Amino acid sequence: MSGLEVAGFVLGVLPIAIKALQGYKSFLSSFKTAQRDVNRLERDLETEWIRLQNTCEHLLVGVASTSMIDTMIQNPFGPEWKRYGDKLRLRLWRSSEKFETYVAEMSAATQELKEKLCIQQDGQIKLNDRSSMLRELKQHTVFTLRKKDYEGILSRIKNGNSVLQDLCRQDCGLESDRRQRSQARVTKLLRGLSKSIYNAVSSAMTCACAYTHIIGLELVPRDAVLVPGDTEEQVAKALNFHIVLNSAADDTASWLPTTRHWNSLGLRLADPGNKIGTPTHPISYHSVAAKPKKGIKWTSSFEKSATKGSSSATETLVKSFQTLTYLPTMTSPQLSKISDICQIVLGSQKKEAVGPYGYVLDAQRKFELCPPGDMSDFRDATTLRQVLVGSQPGLPPFDYPERIQLAFALSDSILNLYDTPWLAKSVRLDDIVFLFGDDTAAVSKYSPYRPFVTKGVLPRASQQPTQQAKSPSSLRPMNLTVLSLGALLIQIIIGEAIDELNVADDMDMNSIVSKREAGSRLEDRIMESDGSNYATAVKWCLESVYGVANLQNDSFCQNFYEAVVSRLEEDVNLLGTD
């Protein structure tokens, strides 16, 4: 058990012990001295029980919803607590180990308390009448009701409670600064991983195809935590990435989102120490998959339960962003380097996928390329612009739950993908792509409203050296990325594609001012469509366009996270409340 689970055990034992004392006290009406001892012991245990409950409440305030705190305290460290595990770990920071040490000591003390009070494993009192209690006392067994026999136990419980209260008070006071440091590490890690994934996949595009392949990365909110003692590699190995690769019907086809076949692939960081070689026989992805580690949890839309109507589709969509499907760790110690992803993907279309396929790598990292589990491939695609203008028939309604989920995913992903090959300087409606299969009905297993950002990759055999044009250093820096995000957020929540909000990389100052003013004029419509929280996030994006700092600056990133990402996450969380 973890330290918090052990604390739950302690919280569960104390009320049982108090109840046992109350029962014994009713048998001691003629033993005044014994009754006084039991009364004192009962009061002491009640006090320590309340102190420990207060500590738990202090831990939960600001982490769990207000309506859930009392319920969670009544069921200490039960199933409801697990969803807040990372946030509690962030709050405890370096104190986690010390917290667990003192909780373990309190647990040992409460176990002795149970034995001395003859409380059975099922929580029932063994001595349930006066005669059996007196008989046990006369036999001088471990059972006792003298207060001095409990002084050592009480001292250990009191000491543990005092330390836990002090740790909790200090940790809560430092949480804000710690959260910023954790977020800065997570952002840096995710950007590095995203760059490496693009470079690794691109370097494995060695096919002789004459046309440009399109690779896509699913935009998924990442609720990661890095605390002292965590390593970036440890956290990175727990992350799963979902990419797609298209294949054209013929070599002359230009990229048309609605005419390509998209193959799903899973990527995860591979152990750099894995041996390079070829397995002697295929390994079944499902049959030999080991149980995944369940440490740090991330938000992903990899898994979604089937729905039977529009009423349950909303609930399923919300839950899909709170669930992680792990790509199981394979037991094979050998991975082969993939030199041609195109050949791997085309080959997998003709037979049942086995995996992992092998690995791809860049100069810094190696990634295991896997079949996507139960994920289906996609035959069609549509852009966010097409969804908003309604030019793509047959799609489910793009209602408020889908819009706010998309806004949150985009905002979090822009923070994590900034300054990577996946993200342009400004993000437009046509840059966001939704992929779907043959069944696009609302009751389909996977919602089509799962955003991908796509990038063209010319096979190495066809690549020509290019030079990127550098912006004149005399130009005043502008935050076009956050301006374009603000424009996207407006159009998403209103449900319309607005030409006045089209943002381009090469805009002059007059155009930037015009776009900002056009967005500001829509504030009332934003308030009507969502509310002040969403409107505040949009306003921050529009007003930050003129700043010198950008998303390469740690302080600016933290402000962006708190002003935009956190606000949209709050709106998403409200979807799951009654």
Compact description:
This protein has helices spanning 3-25, 32-60, 66-74, 79-82, 85-92, 96-116, 130-138, 151-203, 232-237, 310-320, 341-348, 384-389, 400-417, 480-494, 509-520, 523-529, 532-543, 554-574; strands spanning 213-218, 241-247, 261-269, 275-276, 334-335, 358-361, 366-370, 380-383, 432-436, 451-457. The chain is an alpha+beta fold.
Set out the fold topology.
Blueprint (H helix, E strand, L loop, with lengths): L2 H23 L6 H29 L5 H9 L4 H4 L2 H8 L3 H21 L13 H9 L12 H53 L9 E6 L13 H6 L3 E7 L13 E9 L5 E2 L33 H11 L13 E2 L5 H8 L9 E4 L4 E5 L9 E4 H6 L10 H18 L14 E5 L14 E7 L22 H15 L14 H12 L2 H7 L2 H12 L10 H21 L4
Parallel strand pairs: 4-5
Antiparallel strand pairs: 1-2, 1-10, 2-3, 3-7, 6-7, 8-9, 9-10
Protein name: Uu.00g129040.m01.CDS01
Pfam families: DUF7580
Structure description:
This protein is α+β, with helices and mostly antiparallel strands. The chain folds into three domains: 3-175, no CATH class; 204-413 and 432-463, no CATH class; 474-578, no CATH class. 47% of the residues lie in helices and 9% in strands. It contains 18 helices and ten strands. The strands form two sheets. Strands 6-7-3-2-1-10-9-8 form an eight-stranded antiparallel beta sheet. Strands 4-5 form a two-stranded parallel sheet. Strand 6 and strand 7 form a beta hairpin. Helix 1 runs antiparallel to helix 2 and helix 6 packs antiparallel against helix 8. This is Uu.00g129040.m01.CDS01. InterPro entries: DUF7580. Pfam families: DUF7580 (PF24476). Residues 392-573 form the DUF7580 domain.
